[in-house]
Each structure stands twice: as structure tokens, then as C-alpha cells.
TrEMBL record:
<feature type="region of interest" description="Disordered">
    <location>
        <begin position="230"/>
        <end position="252"/>
    </location>
</feature>
<protein>
    <recommendedName>
        <fullName>Phage T7 capsid assembly protein</fullName>
    </recommendedName>
</protein>
<feature type="region of interest" description="Disordered">
    <location>
        <begin position="34"/>
        <end position="55"/>
    </location>
</feature>
<feature type="compositionally biased region" description="Gly residues">
    <location>
        <begin position="232"/>
        <end position="242"/>
    </location>
</feature>
Length: 293
């Protein structure tokens, strides 16, 4: 920049062409005038303030709108101020409202909201009205809904896996035969209680219940109601779902205590064997009390 200024000073005493060269250099330096205001340089085009710009941007057409460096700087300042005012304007409630009116669709029904199979549409319809009310762009609304659906699906999948693992652990602890026998007892208890379940739900009752604690409670309830009978295809006596007598309880006890696994499970509180043991002993005690009375 000092070199250019020096060149302008040296050209001040020359002819008109030299004076024009000095003025061009002075424009770059910010001097603005005084060193000569001659016209066209002899033998070529007048120097431009763009001559000292890098070659990669020197020929950009948009620069032709600026007569000199000062005009370019002024344009930059005004552009930045205008952009800042627009951005700051959207920080207010009124500004956001205007922005929403511009970017939202024509009606709430125009939002593309996907609903997973089997889910009600009430929530989706409510979100359409909400998104339209706040002026949400349709692309944003779709992205938010898709993200929410994915998260809900992941949460549901994780809950189902955790529930299945819980039930599987109970099945392993009880043993498959005991678990299936107890589950069949629950099915029969529910049917006799008037509970209506679809065949699919009844066939997969353990996963539908989905909690080992709830299964334990239902196993206990089935045991207290009465001997539900064996699982189809399995051996053993059937009580037909009727309340057990003290005599039947005594017979069942004599058979059960010979089963080492039953004796082991009967000592674990919360298992069907524990509940059955309690029930059998109570019935046997009631029978003895009647005989002595």
C-alpha cells in the first residue's frame, strides 16, 4: 500500500495520463484526490482498483457494481447490517410468527405425518394442528415425527426383550414342565373366571403377561383356586378345576413330597410349589381338625 501511495505522489507532476494513474492509485490507498485528475491514460485503459486483486476474483462480475474500494466496503457494511437485522428480527415473537407464516404449508392437513401400523391417528392429527400453529416447516415436522417413531419403536423393542428375558429366567428357575403346568392352570382359571382372551393371546399368555412377578402371582392364584388338572398330553391326576378336599390334598401331598425338585421349589417363596405346599398343608390341617372335633 505504501508503494502505491508513493507512485501516486510521483505521478502528481506529470501530464494528464500520469495524473489519472495517480488518481487510480490514490483510490486504493484511500487518499481520494488531490494528486491529479487527468483523463484517459495515453495508449491504454485507465487503471482500476481491481488491478491489485488476486487474479482468481479480479474478474468477478459482481465487482463491477463498485466504483472503488470505498464503495465495496460500504456495500459490505450495509449487507452485514441488513442480515443482522433480519436474523435479530426472528428472535422476537412477532418475527417468529411472520417466519412461520412464510415457511409453514397452506393447511395443517398438508403435513406428512407417518403413523405406525396399529397405532391411533389421534396423536398425529393433534401434532399437525400444533405444528401449523407455531409455523413449523413441513420438513422439520416430518423429521421430528420420524425420529419420535424410531425412538418409540426402539423403546418398545427393548421392553419386549427385557420382558421375554424376565419370563425366560423364571421358566429356567422353575423348570420347563412346572412352568408349563402352572401356565396352563392360569389359562383354565382365566377361562372359568369369564376372562375373554383371543386365541393368540391365550397361546402366548406368558409373553402377554410379560412379568415374572405377575406370573408368580397368577400361578399362586391358580394354585389357591384349585387343582386345574394337567397340561394336555401330560400325565397326572385331574381335579377338574373343583376345590380340593382334605383327602385329595393329603394324596397330592404324598405324591408331591416324593419329587425332589418339587420339595426344593416348595421351599422358595413365590414359586407355585411354595403356594401349593401352603395350600395342601392348610387343607390337610383342616381335615384333621374336623376329625378331632
Amino acid at each position: 500500500m505504501n508503494d502505491v501511495t508513493g507512485g501516486a505522489g510521483g505521478a502528481a507532476g506529470g501530464d494528464g495520463g500520469a495524473g489519472a494513474g495517480g488518481a487510480g492509485a490514490a483510490a486504493i490507498a484511500g487518499a481520494g484526490g488531490g494528486e491529479g485528475t487527468g483523463g484517459q491514460a495515453s495508449g491504454g485503459a485507465a487503471p482500476s482498483w481491481r488491478d491489485d486483486l488476486p487474479e482468481t476474483i479480479r474478474g468477478d462480475a459482481s465487482l463491477a457494481n463498485f466504483a472503488d474500494i470505498g464503495a465495496l466496503a460500504q456495500g459490505y457494511i450495509e449487507t452485514k447490517r441488513t442480515a443482522s437485522e433480519r436474523i435479530d428480527g426472528y428472535k422476537t415473537d412477532e418475527g417468529l410468527k411472520k417466519f412461520g407464516e412464510i415457511v409453514r404449508p397452506a393447511t395443517a392437513a398438508d403435513y406428512e405425518i407417518s403413523v405406525p401400523d396399529g397405532f391411533p391417528t389421534k396423536k398425529a392429527d393433534a401434532f399437525r394442528d400444533f405444528a401449523f400453529g407455531i409455523g413449523m416447516p413441513p420438513q422439520w415436522a416430518k423429521a421430528i415425527v420420524d425420529f419420535n417413531n424410531e425412538q418409540d419403536a426402539d423403546d418398545l423393542r427393548a421392553a419386549e426383550e427385557a420382558s421375554q428375558a424376565d419370563v425366560d429366567q423364571l421358566r429356567n428357575t422353575m423348570g420347563a414342565d412346572k412352568f408349563d403346568t402352572s401356565l396352563q392352570a392360569v389359562r383354565q382359571m382365566l377361562e372359568k373366571s369369564g376372562v375373554e382372551l383371543a386365541a393368540e393371546d391365550m397361546a402366548h399368555l406368558d409373553t402377554k403377561i410379560g412379568s415374572s412377578n405377575l406370573l408368580k402371582w397368577m400361578f399362586d392364584m391358580a394354585a389357591r383356586v384349585g387343582d386345574p388338572g394337567p397340561v394336555e398330553g401330560a400325565g397326572g391326576a385331574s381335579g377338574g378345576g373343583q376345590a380340593m378336599t382334605p383327602e385329595a390334598a393329603s394324596s397330592r401331598w404324598d405324591v408331591a413330597v416324593k419329587d425332589a425338585n418339587w420339595r426344593k421349589q416348595a421351599q422358595i417363596k413365590g414359586t407355585p410349589e411354595f403356594a401349593e405346599s401352603e395350600r395342601l398343608q392348610n387343607l390337610i390341617a383342616q381335615g384333621r381338625a374336623r376329625k378331632t372335633s
